[in-house]
From TrEMBL:
Transmembrane segments: none annotated. The lineage of its organism: Archaea, Methanobacteriati, Methanobacteriota, Stenosarchaea group, Halobacteria. NCBIfam families: TIGR00266 family protein. This is TIGR00266 family protein.
Protein backbone atom coordinates (compact mmCIF):
# COMPACT_ATOMS: atom_id res chain seq x y z
CA UNK A 1 0.00 0.00 0.00
CA UNK A 2 1.74 3.15 -1.26
CA UNK A 3 0.69 6.70 -0.44
CA UNK A 4 1.40 10.34 -1.24
CA UNK A 5 0.59 13.47 0.78
CA UNK A 6 0.24 16.65 -1.29
CA UNK A 7 -0.46 20.35 -0.66
CA UNK A 8 1.10 20.35 2.80
CA UNK A 9 0.91 21.84 5.32
CA UNK A 10 -2.21 23.99 4.91
CA UNK A 11 -4.51 21.90 2.70
CA UNK A 12 -3.06 18.39 2.81
CA UNK A 13 -4.52 15.65 0.63
CA UNK A 14 -3.74 11.96 1.19
CA UNK A 15 -3.84 9.57 -1.77
CA UNK A 16 -3.49 5.85 -1.06
CA UNK A 17 -2.73 3.39 -3.87
CA UNK A 18 -4.26 -0.02 -3.17
CA UNK A 19 -3.27 -3.22 -4.92
CA UNK A 20 -5.95 -5.77 -5.69
CA UNK A 21 -7.18 -7.29 -2.43
CA UNK A 22 -5.83 -4.50 -0.19
CA UNK A 23 -8.02 -2.38 2.10
CA UNK A 24 -7.87 0.80 4.15
CA UNK A 25 -10.17 2.09 6.89
CA UNK A 26 -11.07 5.75 7.36
CA UNK A 27 -13.09 8.08 9.52
CA UNK A 28 -16.57 8.73 8.11
CA UNK A 29 -16.58 11.84 5.94
CA UNK A 30 -12.81 11.77 5.26
CA UNK A 31 -13.07 10.36 1.72
CA UNK A 32 -12.49 12.78 -1.16
CA UNK A 33 -12.51 10.40 -4.13
CA UNK A 34 -11.86 6.84 -5.23
CA UNK A 35 -11.23 5.00 -8.48
CA UNK A 36 -13.42 2.50 -10.27
CA UNK A 37 -12.76 -0.96 -8.87
CA UNK A 38 -12.76 0.27 -5.24
CA UNK A 39 -15.68 -0.89 -3.10
CA UNK A 40 -16.76 0.99 0.04
CA UNK A 41 -18.21 -0.72 3.11
CA UNK A 42 -19.70 1.29 5.97
CA UNK A 43 -19.84 -0.43 9.34
CA UNK A 44 -20.11 0.23 13.05
CA UNK A 45 -16.67 -1.28 13.63
CA UNK A 46 -16.27 -3.15 16.89
CA UNK A 47 -20.04 -3.56 17.19
CA UNK A 48 -22.54 -1.13 18.62
CA UNK A 49 -20.75 -0.81 21.98
CA UNK A 50 -17.33 -0.23 20.46
CA UNK A 51 -18.68 2.37 18.05
CA UNK A 52 -20.56 4.14 20.83
CA UNK A 53 -17.36 4.32 22.88
CA UNK A 54 -15.47 5.96 20.01
CA UNK A 55 -18.36 8.28 19.13
CA UNK A 56 -19.57 9.43 22.55
CA UNK A 57 -16.33 9.14 24.52
CA UNK A 58 -13.64 9.48 21.87
CA UNK A 59 -15.26 12.16 19.73
CA UNK A 60 -15.07 10.14 16.50
CA UNK A 61 -17.81 9.10 14.08
CA UNK A 62 -20.11 6.22 15.01
CA UNK A 63 -19.55 4.63 11.57
CA UNK A 64 -16.30 4.02 9.73
CA UNK A 65 -15.65 3.31 6.06
CA UNK A 66 -13.51 0.50 4.71
CA UNK A 67 -12.30 0.75 1.10
CA UNK A 68 -11.61 -2.63 -0.52
CA UNK A 69 -9.71 -2.89 -3.80
CA UNK A 70 -11.54 -5.28 -6.12
CA UNK A 71 -9.04 -3.97 -8.66
CA UNK A 72 -5.93 -1.85 -8.12
CA UNK A 73 -6.81 1.81 -7.67
CA UNK A 74 -6.51 4.98 -5.60
CA UNK A 75 -8.49 6.45 -2.72
CA UNK A 76 -7.97 10.02 -1.49
CA UNK A 77 -8.73 11.49 1.93
CA UNK A 78 -8.65 14.92 3.58
CA UNK A 79 -9.37 16.28 7.08
CA UNK A 80 -12.31 18.64 7.66
CA UNK A 81 -10.11 21.55 8.77
CA UNK A 82 -7.28 23.34 6.96
CA UNK A 83 -4.17 21.50 8.02
CA UNK A 84 -1.61 18.78 7.62
CA UNK A 85 -1.51 14.99 7.37
CA UNK A 86 1.27 12.79 8.72
CA UNK A 87 2.01 9.09 8.15
CA UNK A 88 3.26 6.83 10.90
CA UNK A 89 3.92 3.11 10.56
CA UNK A 90 3.33 1.12 13.73
CA UNK A 91 5.35 -2.05 14.38
CA UNK A 92 3.59 -3.89 17.20
CA UNK A 93 3.21 -0.51 18.92
CA UNK A 94 0.59 1.65 20.61
CA UNK A 95 -0.24 5.25 19.75
CA UNK A 96 -2.70 7.58 21.47
CA UNK A 97 -4.55 10.08 19.27
CA UNK A 98 -6.53 13.12 20.33
CA UNK A 99 -10.17 13.37 19.33
CA UNK A 100 -10.53 14.52 15.74
CA UNK A 101 -6.98 13.73 14.58
CA UNK A 102 -7.59 10.16 13.37
CA UNK A 103 -7.93 10.12 9.57
CA UNK A 104 -7.26 6.60 8.27
CA UNK A 105 -5.34 3.41 8.99
CA UNK A 106 -4.64 -0.13 7.85
CA UNK A 107 -7.46 -2.52 8.69
CA UNK A 108 -5.03 -4.66 10.72
CA UNK A 109 -4.65 -1.91 13.33
CA UNK A 110 -7.02 -2.00 16.28
CA UNK A 111 -8.78 1.31 16.98
CA UNK A 112 -10.40 1.78 20.36
CA UNK A 113 -10.87 4.29 23.15
CA UNK A 114 -8.58 4.21 26.15
CA UNK A 115 -9.45 5.57 29.57
CA UNK A 116 -6.83 8.11 30.55
CA UNK A 117 -7.81 8.53 34.18
CA UNK A 118 -8.58 11.74 36.03
CA UNK A 119 -5.53 13.49 34.58
CA UNK A 120 -7.21 13.78 31.16
CA UNK A 121 -10.49 14.98 32.64
CA UNK A 122 -8.98 18.43 33.05
CA UNK A 123 -7.58 18.57 29.51
CA UNK A 124 -9.55 19.60 26.45
CA UNK A 125 -9.41 16.02 25.12
CA UNK A 126 -11.70 14.66 27.85
CA UNK A 127 -11.58 11.35 29.68
CA UNK A 128 -10.91 9.17 26.66
CA UNK A 129 -8.18 9.09 24.04
CA UNK A 130 -8.28 7.02 20.87
CA UNK A 131 -5.83 4.12 20.93
CA UNK A 132 -4.24 2.68 17.78
CA UNK A 133 -2.52 -0.64 18.40
CA UNK A 134 -0.77 -3.29 16.32
CA UNK A 135 1.24 -3.29 13.10
CA UNK A 136 0.38 -1.21 10.04
CA UNK A 137 0.11 2.26 8.52
CA UNK A 138 -1.71 5.11 10.22
CA UNK A 139 -2.54 8.61 8.99
CA UNK A 140 -3.20 11.51 11.35
CA UNK A 141 -4.56 14.96 10.57
CA UNK A 142 -4.21 18.33 12.26
CA UNK A 143 -5.48 21.88 12.39
CA UNK A 144 -2.46 23.74 11.03
CA UNK A 145 0.93 22.18 10.40
CA UNK A 146 2.23 19.11 12.23
CA UNK A 147 5.42 19.35 14.27
CA UNK A 148 7.14 16.16 15.45
CA UNK A 149 9.16 16.08 18.68
CA UNK A 150 11.42 13.13 19.57
CA UNK A 151 11.97 12.67 23.30
CA UNK A 152 14.86 10.71 24.76
CA UNK A 153 14.66 8.62 27.93
CA UNK A 154 13.56 10.85 30.81
CA UNK A 155 13.34 14.01 28.67
CA UNK A 156 10.38 16.25 29.55
CA UNK A 157 8.41 18.44 27.16
CA UNK A 158 5.34 20.59 27.85
CA UNK A 159 2.52 21.16 25.34
CA UNK A 160 -0.75 23.10 25.50
CA UNK A 161 -3.57 20.52 25.48
CA UNK A 162 -5.21 22.11 22.42
CA UNK A 163 -2.07 21.53 20.32
CA UNK A 164 -1.70 17.78 20.88
CA UNK A 165 -2.23 15.50 17.87
CA UNK A 166 -0.85 12.17 19.11
CA UNK A 167 1.91 10.55 21.15
CA UNK A 168 3.63 7.18 21.46
CA UNK A 169 2.46 4.71 24.04
CA UNK A 170 6.01 4.65 25.44
CA UNK A 171 5.66 8.21 26.76
CA UNK A 172 4.13 9.16 30.08
CA UNK A 173 2.22 12.40 30.63
CA UNK A 174 0.66 14.54 33.32
CA UNK A 175 -1.81 17.43 33.01
CA UNK A 176 -0.74 20.55 34.88
CA UNK A 177 -1.60 24.22 35.30
CA UNK A 178 0.60 26.91 33.75
CA UNK A 179 2.43 28.30 36.78
CA UNK A 180 0.17 29.42 39.60
CA UNK A 181 -3.56 30.09 39.65
CA UNK A 182 -3.10 33.61 38.25
CA UNK A 183 -1.20 32.28 35.23
CA UNK A 184 -3.78 29.56 34.67
CA UNK A 185 -6.66 32.04 34.66
CA UNK A 186 -5.13 35.04 32.89
CA UNK A 187 -2.18 33.88 30.76
CA UNK A 188 -4.43 32.53 28.02
CA UNK A 189 -2.66 29.18 28.23
CA UNK A 190 -4.77 27.29 30.78
CA UNK A 191 -3.74 23.64 31.18
CA UNK A 192 -0.79 21.85 29.62
CA UNK A 193 0.46 18.28 29.23
CA UNK A 194 4.00 17.47 30.30
CA UNK A 195 5.32 14.42 28.45
CA UNK A 196 8.23 12.31 29.62
CA UNK A 197 10.20 10.27 27.07
CA UNK A 198 11.18 8.10 25.43
CA UNK A 199 8.84 8.47 22.48
CA UNK A 200 7.45 10.82 19.87
CA UNK A 201 4.90 13.58 20.36
CA UNK A 202 3.06 15.09 17.37
CA UNK A 203 1.82 18.69 17.75
CA UNK A 204 -0.40 20.94 15.62
CA UNK A 205 0.58 24.55 15.01
CA UNK A 206 -2.97 25.83 15.53
CA UNK A 207 -5.54 25.21 18.27
CA UNK A 208 -9.26 24.92 17.59
CA UNK A 209 -10.00 26.14 21.13
CA UNK A 210 -7.94 29.28 20.55
CA UNK A 211 -9.58 29.89 17.19
CA UNK A 212 -13.07 29.57 18.67
CA UNK A 213 -12.12 31.88 21.55
CA UNK A 214 -11.13 34.48 18.94
CA UNK A 215 -14.12 33.87 16.63
CA UNK A 216 -17.13 33.55 18.94
CA UNK A 217 -17.00 37.09 20.39
CA UNK A 218 -17.02 38.44 16.83
CA UNK A 219 -20.16 36.58 15.75
CA UNK A 220 -23.37 38.63 15.54
CA UNK A 221 -26.05 37.94 18.10
CA UNK A 222 -29.82 38.34 17.97
CA UNK A 223 -29.46 41.48 20.10
CA UNK A 224 -26.87 43.06 17.82
CA UNK A 225 -27.95 46.36 16.21
CA UNK A 226 -28.92 46.04 12.57
Amino acid sequence: MDHTIEYRPSFALLTVSLDQGESIRSEAGAMVSYADGIDIETTARGGIFGSLKRSVLGGESFFQNTFNAREAGEVSFAPPLPGDIVHHSLDDETMYVQSGSYLASAVDLDLDTSFGGAKTFFGSEGLFLLKLEGTGDSFLSSYGAIHEVELTEGERYTVDTGHIVAFDGTTDFTVERVGGLKSTLFSGEGLVCTFTGPGTVWLQSRSMDSFLSWLIPKLPTTNSPQ
